[in-house]
Specification:
The protein is α+β, with helices and mostly antiparallel strands and 147 residues long. It contains six helices and five strands; from the N terminus they run H-H-E-H-E-E-E-H-H-H-E. The N and C termini lie far apart (30 Å).
Length: 147
């Protein structure tokens, strides 16, 4: 049975809480993954769950790999459905496809650097979580069409 409702396409504290429960704790990388998934759903006009695929291109070890849990919660792509996969590489970017359309969402290097640097610092963490929650898509990501 397929969903005929669409995944929510905007950031909310509720979404972040749901993702934190799924992941085991809150986090900047998971939050970035949530944002990337939301961008993809909007850009590709996808419902989520079944009509979208994604390839996460990043280091497959924490904290970077925590992006994957954010992606799973925001897009509904899951390991079990085989519509999410991972390529080991530098940086953090995700390729999404839905139907004939595709988009790649790249976490800006300066943002990634700030995220890496602040992992040990709680005040910085809260400031950056605020940024990831509220900044515009363009401030955080580079978004390119795949076709």
């Amino acid at each position: 049975m397929h969903h005929n409702i669409a995944k929510k396409r905007e950031w909310s504290n509720e979404l972040y809480e749901k993702a934190s429960e799924f992941h085991g704790h809150g986090g900047l990388f998971m939050a970035a993954g949530l944002r990337m998934g939301i961008i993809a759903l909007k850009t590709l006009d996808a419902c989520g769950w079944f009509n979208i695929r994604c390839v996460a291109q990043l280091h497959w070890s924490p904290p970077d790999s925590c992006v994957i849990d954010g992606l799973q919660v925001s897009t509904g792509c899951t390991m079990g459905k085989h519509n999410i996969s991972v390529k080991e590489m530098d940086g953090v970017s995700v390729e999404f496809e839905s139907g004939e359309s595709g988009v790649v969402v790249i976490l800006r290097e300066n943002v990634l650097r700030m995220m890496r640097e602040c992992l040990e610092n709680e005040i910085e963490f809260n400031r950056l979580l605020e940024l990831i929650s509220n900044a515009s898509d363009e401030e955080l990501f580079e978004i390119k069409s795949l076709n």
